[in-house]
């Protein structure tokens, strides 16, 4: 198994941060999206971020944010990256990257081959891409739905001009296969490390990391 970096997303308690660090996460994500069971306030995110050990990147996940929202988050929360998980067009991604001077990861939702065309549009304006399952029509959030997409869509893709992460329904049982099929060297997940919606579980984080290591 190659070395694969893990991002655990949607942490909301200090013990989640400790568990993520202990499991070997290289990124942790804080979700700013009111309809999500993982939603955190700016103050909560700040407290959590201050608990994150050096060397683990702190990522703020936002959905079609306006400048006022981002101004507040960036001013209050010590961050290493912004994750844009809405329908932000490439120009807005570039604008956010320039305005805040933070690396930006743009999420791209995939359900079919044509969705991959977005990779070429966003790679020039983002520092990383997050290739995630496309939001189902009836879902009330654009990510974190615990659903996979057809990984074979990425199988033949050799050239990526920016680093990328694979996401969408990854679990301790399927991640080795997902990495094998797609060639991903970074993975992101949320649902499979929860014991209930929004409640992270230390044992599941550990088991997921072990599945990638062993
Ligand atoms: O997790 C959320 O609640 C969420 C809400 C709004 C936008 C994005 C959201 N999550 C995005 C992530 O980065 C998830 O980790 C990613 O979609 C994978 O989630 P899962 O399929 O649950 O592992």
From TrEMBL:
Amino-acid biosynthesis as UniProt keyword: yes
Domain N-(5'phosphoribosyl) anthranilate isomerase (PRAI): 7-209
InterPro entries in UniProt: PRAI_dom (IPR001240), TrpF_fam (IPR044643)
Known catalytic reactions: N-(5-phospho-beta-D-ribosyl)anthranilate = 1-(2-carboxyphenylamino)-1-deoxy-D-ribulose 5-phosphate
Pathway(s) where this gene product acts: Amino-acid biosynthesis; L-tryptophan biosynthesis; L-tryptophan from chorismate: step 3/5
Organism domain of life: Bacteria
Segment forming the signal sequence: none
GO process terms (BP): L-tryptophan biosynthetic process
Keywords: Amino-acid biosynthesis, Aromatic amino acid biosynthesis, Isomerase, Tryptophan biosynthesis
EC nos: 5.3.1.24
GO molecular function, one term: phosphoribosylanthranilate isomerase activity
Cited NCBIfam families: PRK01222.1-1
HAMAP family in the cross-refs: PRAI
Family, similarity comment: Belongs to the TrpF family.
Protein name per its UniProtKB record: N-(5'-phosphoribosyl)anthranilate isomerase
Gene symbol of the encoding locus: trpF
């Amino acid at each position: 198994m190659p070395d694969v970096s893990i991002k655990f997303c949607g942490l909301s308690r200090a013990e989640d941060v400790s568990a993520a660090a202990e499991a070997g996460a290289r990124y942790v994500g804080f979700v700013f999206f009111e309809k999500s069971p993982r939603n955190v306030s700016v103050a909560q995110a700040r407290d959590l971020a201050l608990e994150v050990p050096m060397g683990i990147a702190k990522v703020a996940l936002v959905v079609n944010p306006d400048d006022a929202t981002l101004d507040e988050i960036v001013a209050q929360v010590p961050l290493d990256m912004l994750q844009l998980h809405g329908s932000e067009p490439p120009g807005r991604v570039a604008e956010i990257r320039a305005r805040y001077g933070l690396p930006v990861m743009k999420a791209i939702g995939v359900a079919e081959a044509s969705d991959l065309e977005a990779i070429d549009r966003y790679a020039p304006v983002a520092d990383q891409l997050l290739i995630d399952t496309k939001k189902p029509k009836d879902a009330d959030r654009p990510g974190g739905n615990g659903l996979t997409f057809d990984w074979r869509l990425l199988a033949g893709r050799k050239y990526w001009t920016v680093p990328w992460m694979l996401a969408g329904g990854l679990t301790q049982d399927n991640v080795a296969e997902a990495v094998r099929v797609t060639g991903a060297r970074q993975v992101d997940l949320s649902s499979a490390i929860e014991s209930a919606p929004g409640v992270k579980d230390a044992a599941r984080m550990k088991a997921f990391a072990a599945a990638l290591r062993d």
